[in-house]
């Protein structure tokens, strides 16, 4: 009989978790609607404040809500209307190297509802650069409000000066599978996978672990060897606070509002 540890570090649990996640997300996706997949990152200088608060889920919760509010602002600005959009937000704290690098994977509806008019407005082509500027504003404002600290205020002010035009964020323009199951499986790998997959571990001699990863900056494979305690530390730092929900639904994708607007969305030909 297999042993289950109820964690993304347990490979036997991961498969079941992915299947459950896919089923859950598939049930809340709007039939016939197109979605965007967007990745929102943070500057390197902000990783330390996030890391220090890694055992307190309130910062990550504010981070996730901030991502939704940013994209709702983007859609409203582009379409020049106050709209309610839908997002499924997944928070991931590790980068490819295993270091602490919090960022958001977001599945966003391709448009939104104007609640006063009861009408759907479709978001077609728009300049992705607008997300960078909006994300900078919303992220920095959220951090200042969350910490209410002179040290954090100083850091944010320095970042405003360093990035005067906008905050460089990764916006994925890749194709997201159109079917509900395929779309739901797209973020599932970020939810259930461990920071370093077994296939990327080259060797372990009892004292050192050698593993590889594809570097974002150089676009090449890098090999790193670290002491086993360092390797374990890089893995366990990504364990979420107890009862923390790393997948959240906002706006039209939230359970309470989904049924209210789904029939109207479909009837409008979204």
Q: How would a textbook summarize the main sheet?
A: 4 strands, antiparallel
Unreliable spans are 1-5, 173-177
Structural class: alpha+beta
SSE string:
HEHHEEEEHHHEEEHEH
Percent range for helical residues? 40-55%
Mean of residue pLDDT?
79
The termini sit apart by 48 Å
Task: Indicate the topology.
Layout: H1 11-28, E1 35-40, H2 47-52, H3 57-79, E2 86-94, E3 100-109, E4 111-114, E5 119-122, H4 129-147, H5 150-162, H6 180-192, E6 201-204, E7 208-214, E8 221-227, H7 228-236, E9 247-251, H8 255-267
Antiparallel strand pairs: 1-3, 2-3, 2-9, 4-5, 6-7, 7-8
Could you please describe the fold and organization of this structure?
The chain has 270 residues and is of the alpha+beta class. It folds into two domains: 214 residues, no CATH class; 41 residues, no CATH class. 42% of the residues lie in helices and 21% in strands. It is built from eight helices and nine strands. The chain has a four-stranded antiparallel β-sheet with strand order 1-3-2-9, with helices on both faces. Strands 6-7-8 form a three-stranded antiparallel β-sheet. Helix 1 packs antiparallel against helix 6. 28% of the residues are buried.
State the main characteristics.
8 helices; 270 residues; single chain; disordered N terminus; 2 domains; alpha+beta; 4-stranded antiparallel beta sheet
Quick rundown:
This protein has 270 residues and is of the alpha+beta class. The protein has 8 helices and 9 strands.
